[in-house]
Structures are given as C-alpha cells and as structure tokens.
Request: fold
Amino acid sequence: MSAPTPEPAEPTEPAAAVVDSMESEPSDSARASLEALRSEIAKAVVGQDPAVTGLVVALLCRGHVLLEGVPGVAKTLLVRALAASLELDTKRVQFTPDLMPSDVTGSLVYDARTAEFSFQPGPVFTNLLIADEINRTPPKTQSSLLEAMEERQVTVDGKPKALPEPFLVAATQNPVEYEGTYPLPEAQLDRFLLKLTVPLPSRQDEIDVLTRHAEGFNPRDLQAAGVGPVAGPAHLEAAREAVAKTTVSPEIAGYVVDICRATRESPSLTLGVSPRGATALLSTARAWAWLTGRDYVIPDDVKALALPTLRHRIHLRPEAEMEGVTPDSVITSVLAHVPVPR
Reply:
C-alpha cells in the first residue's frame, strides 16, 4: 500500500509521532514474544505448527481451544508446553467417567469450628485450564464448564465468582468414534473459539520424536527439556490491544457474513454457522492479520482461519455423512464458491 499524503505540519505533530512510536514498540515486543512461543514449544513437540498457531490466536481472542486427535499424538504435551512457555497460572483436570461438576468448579465445605460453609475453589480458577480428554466424562460434568467458558465466572450458592484474567480452556478429546467417549453437545462446542485437529506426524517428524526420546527426552519434565516462560500477561495484554485496532473493511465483514450464510444454505448440513460463529471468524482473522504483521484484514486471513473456526459449528445430515462428506469439505466448498472481495 502506498503511504498517505502527509498533511501540513502542525506544532503538535512531533509529539504525536513520538506517541505513535511508543505505542508501536509494545506491540512489536508482544508480537516477538508470542512468535517465540512457537520455537519454545518446539523444544518439546515436533511439528504441529498449525496447532501452536491456533493456540496463540485463541489467546489473542480470549477464546478457548478444542484439540482433537487419536491417542498418542502429543495433544496434552502440546498444551503443557504452551503452559510452561507462559508466565500464567496453570491447572490440569483429567476428565473421567466418575468426575463430578464440583471437582471442576469447586464446592461449599462445612467448617465445624465456625459452623459455616466456605467455598473451596476448584481447578477452574486459573489462567490456563488443561481439560484433558474432556469427552471421557458424561454431559453433566462437561456442562460444568459452560458458564466458566462463556461468562468467565462460576456461580456458587447464587453468588457469581469471577475467574482470573486471562482465562483459557484448552481441552483435548479423542475422536467420537473411540470407545468410552461422550460427544460434546452443540451448545458447548459453540463455546470453543477453535477446533484444532492434531494429525499423526509425518515419517520424518516421527523419526525426530524417536531420536529425542533416545537422547533422553522426558515429556514429564519440560524444564529439563529447556522449556521456559517467554511471554507473560503484559505481552498478552499489549497484543490484545493491538489486535483490537486491526482494521476491518465493510467488504471483509460482508465476506465473513456471506461465508457463514452459505453454510446455512448447504444441502449437506442440518445446522449452519450461527452469528456467534461469524463473530468468531472475524476475531480470529484479525488476530492472524496482526500476527503476520498487518494492521488490516484481507480475505486470505479469513480463509486461513475458516476451517478451525467453523468446523465444529456445523452439523452434517446423516445421509451426507454416509456419503463421506466432512465438515472440512463443506467449508472448503463454501470458500470456493463465495465471491472474494477485491
């Protein structure tokens, strides 16, 4: 883009230029810190760059992430490495069939000395909650995260208790076809900003994994692997402020809406993307634009984040599913047919 024609100089312009420079420095520092997360996580996880990028985008958008993949592809290790790379409080919950909602949110405990009930906070009161194998627990316990994820609070005895800021749920799940899983309901899936698929590694990546283990890598000891904090709350807040200033033209907003409306008209779907999904796609596209060094959104940003942002917000017709249609193929088809703004 060509630079705008400068206006006649005013006495206050030098001061304004200094202010602009000061504002850009925190933004650049925040971008560098968040980009450093990729190399830091790579010390523990081989490959999976798209998943790492998705986690960073979710942090910028104040969203939550669902990672899906078969057992053994380092889903939990990926989230643990992210937690170790951030100066944030982190807790982990292993979701099991016998887990109760109070085991996640906390409960009222009777104190015999005072003859009163006091609230004992659960692991949800943290900055980064690792919800491991979330679809291994029944819907009753899954729903315990609904209020926390949407309202960022937990109501106990009729009184809301705010969660720390920032707050992010990074949940892992096995494909629903696996034994002993409880599919997440649409209402809860819609609370996740992104659904990231964690595929099996390539041959070379798998060789690298085995080589690391042969050299003594211990996935349970990330500190020994050299993984340490490279970003903190200050970097994250500066980055979020910069993302909020990323420009969205009316044409881009219309493009996002047209994509989401096209899913609602797809003959392969019983449920298309809701307005909340359209808002999510716009948010993730802005974050991606800022991460790539731009202060404005282009159609390629929308396309880049369409699959992870929308794939869990649509529902296939049974006959389409039997024919081998997938959510990703529907969204890809929509992207191919919706006119791109010039």
Remarks:
- The radius of gyration is 22 Å.
- The mean pLDDT is 86.
- The first helix runs from residue 13 to 41.
- The chain has two domains: 28-214, 245-342.
